[in-house]
Amino acid sequence: MSVLNGKKILLGVSGGIAAYKTASLVRLFIKAGAHVQVIMTPASKDFVTPLTLSTLSKNPVHSSFFNQEDQDAVWNNHVELALWADLMLIAPATANTLSKMVTGNCDNLLIATYLSAKCPVYFAPAMDLDMYKHPSTLSGFTALKQFGNIMIPAENGELASGLSGEGRMAEPENIIAFLEADLESKLPLKGKKILITAGPTYEAIDPVRFIGNHSSGKMGFDLANEAANLGAEVVLVAGPTHYKVKYSQIQVVNVVSAQEMYEACHLYFDHADVAIAAAAVADYRPKVVALQKIKKASDEFSIELEKTKDILASLGAIKKKQFLIGFALETENEIENAKLKIQKKNLDLIVLNSLQDEGAGFKKETNKVTFIDQKFKVEPMELKSKESVAVDILNKVISHFSEL
């Protein structure tokens, strides 16, 4: 799956013949799973129609501060457009538009939005070869790079003037490849291997009954999706759950019992840089599993239980370089019990949940956690969505590697 999947891309189109390529560019963005909004300079509409780009992007095209045909005179808010975007691409970037970007000559919606952008800005120049080599153009490239903008170099080829040389806007496929490569190279967990457990385990009583818990698996799946989004190679060992991963590069290992989860974790742990044990693993299982369904024969029924293997403790006992994160769900003496678990299981970080907190616990969309590290630093967090909690946890992972 493309790193552009889910990204919000603001495409700025300026007035050059290469604008015709933006139809293919928008189509490729949509095919990659991106969300696209388009801003056109008035001159660019002579080369490609707003209707074409609106149809392909599935969004209205913006061109002026006010829609002239709109009787209510609702303005196109350049600040909102800029803040919406995960990245901005100006393609084609003509000599005129590049000059305005350098000087801040803000006479159209595209430049006003560019000046308001807080996201990464890419630009793909397009002009005739002498214009491309002119000292003013070259100094403009240098200035824009110093501003932090990223240039997608023009290619050699036939130009609209009939000449052949450098200045031709990069082909849409090459622009996509450039963006993907650049974004991937900057992902903070690129090259890291992360093992994550998720969901409950089911411990069989007989062929139809089991001992389980109310874990939905959402927290573990959110962690896996966010880790993959940050560039990590992810192995997700998942107990029974209805959740699905968003990214095809996440390797999902489906298990049912605590023993199966134990075996899977030990299979992948040695090659992991990080392990996050978010699963709610059963502490006990039936000592004997009936081969046939147990009939309801008496008013009372007893099951003899035995302890399951402690997956997290077993990983802590053999860890070498791995950054090991555990979860604790407590109902009393939360902080002290979590600190004991850090020591007992040789953890680097524990994520403490309390069933006493409103909005936290199983089968909730939100969670309220407290981070406790190996030095017993306690960091309580606010109630957040589980997706946001996943981001916070992985920020701890990023911080760990940045300090090495």
Any chance you could write out the topology, listing elements then pairs?
Elements (H helix, E strand, L loop, with lengths): L7 E6 L8 H10 L3 E6 L9 H8 L20 H7 L2 E7 L1 H9 L5 H8 L4 E5 L3 H5 L1 H12 L3 E2 L3 E4 L5 E5 L3 H14 L7 E6 L4 E2 L5 E2 L6 H12 L3 E6 L12 E4 L3 H11 L5 E4 L6 E3 L18 E3 L3 H8 L4 E8 L3 H12 L3 E6 L11 E2 L1 E5 L4 E3 L3 E2 H17 L2
Helix pairs in contact: 1-2, 1-8, 3-5, 4-7, 9-13
What name does the CATH topology of the largest domain carry?
Rossmann fold
Helix-strand makeup class: alpha/beta
CATH superfamily of the largest domain: CoaB-like
- Oligomer type: single chain
How far apart are the first and last residues' alpha carbons, in Å?
Answer: 30 Å
Low-confidence stretches: none
CATH architecture call of the largest domain: 3-Layer(aba) Sandwich
What do the pLDDT scores average to? 93
Quantity of strands, as a count? 21
How many structural domains can be distinguished in the coordinates? 2
What top-tier CATH class of the largest domain fits best? Alpha Beta
Shape: elongated
Q: Give the biggest sheet.
A: 8 strands, mixed
Please give the share of residues in helix.
25-40%
* Strand arrangement across the biggest beta sheet: 12-11-8-13-16-17-19-20
Helix count, per DSSP? Answer: 13
Beta-strand residue percentage: 15-25%
